[in-house]
Amino acid sequence: MSIEIIPAIDLLDGQCVRLTRGDYATSKVYGGDPLEVARRFERMGAEWLHVVDLNGARGDGMMNLRAVERICAGTHLRVEFGGGVRRTEDAEAAFGAGVERVCVGSVAQRDVALTKVWMERFSPGRVVIGADAREGRVCVDGWRTSTMTTVDELVRAYLPELRRVVCTDIDRDGVLGGAAVEFYRSLCRRFPTVAFTASGGVASMADIRALEAAGVAAVVVGKAFYEGVSDFNAW
To answer: 20 to 30 Å CA-CA from 103: which of 5, 31, 157, 168?
Structure first.
């Protein structure tokens, strides 16, 4: 299987949680020690880990960076981190904590010029654009604010330098209802030079195989791991 399966850790007040459709009121705790959760994923065979600071995503500042630093130091996982990266100092702090890639969402939508400066400074391969979408429109501030920007418009703003986009279908996130395969297939066809990571709704290996056939480079899996609804050990 060529598609990369990336387990997810979402951090809220230092704990590993999952939300449903991005609603903070639905937060469910799955572990109090993020490092132990990360080590479990490593034992399962993961090479990458997608970590989101939910406090940072909603504008509280990167409150969970110490936990991210512990994961980077305490495992061999390559960490992709997002949530609260608003300033150059935030990006520097994230890379300083040991993360491999920084995922930028709100700033990518609001300040293209600044995000391009980061891509030039840290390299386009290490700055990932986060396109979190509801009904095709990009949402920011921890998915609480809808914009008029489409995913296509956001992607085009960063071509030709753009290397990777993490695209989350918010309405499917955390509900285990299957991935929006055709949505990702159309993105891959329109932007063949961009590696897309799909996120939201994945519940089975069948979902992952369908995304791989659609041209998706990687898939983030969250609640399906924590709820044990499917066996991903085969990856």
So the answer is: 31
132 is catalytic: yes
Q: What single-letter amino acid sits at 70?
A: R
At residue 133, φ and ψ (nearest 5 deg) are -125, 145
Q: Measured between alpha carbons, how far is 125 from 8 in angstroms, rounded to an integer?
A: 20
Dmax over CA atoms of the chain, in Å, equals: 43
Sequential pLDDT tens for the chain (235 residues): 689 999 999 999 999 998 877 788 888 898 789 999 999 999 989 999 999 999 988 888 898 999 999 999 999 999 999 999 999 999 999 999 999 999 999 999 999 999 999 999 999 999 999 998 888 899 988 778 889 999 999 999 999 999 999 998 887 766 666 889 999 999 999 999 999 999 988 988 899 999 999 999 999 998 888 877 655 554 4
Q: Does the domain made of 4-227 have the CATH classification 3.20.20.70?
A: yes
HSE, CB side, 13 Å, CA atoms: give it for residue 15: 10
Cα R_g (the chain), whole angstroms: 16
Q: Which of 132, 169, 173, 207 is catalytic?
A: 132
Between CA 30 and CA 235 the distance in angstroms is 22
Strands 137-140 and 15-20: unpaired
Tally the C-alpha atoms within 13 A of residue 85's C-alpha that lie toward its C-beta.
28
Which sequence spans correspond to the domains of the chain?
Answer: 4-227
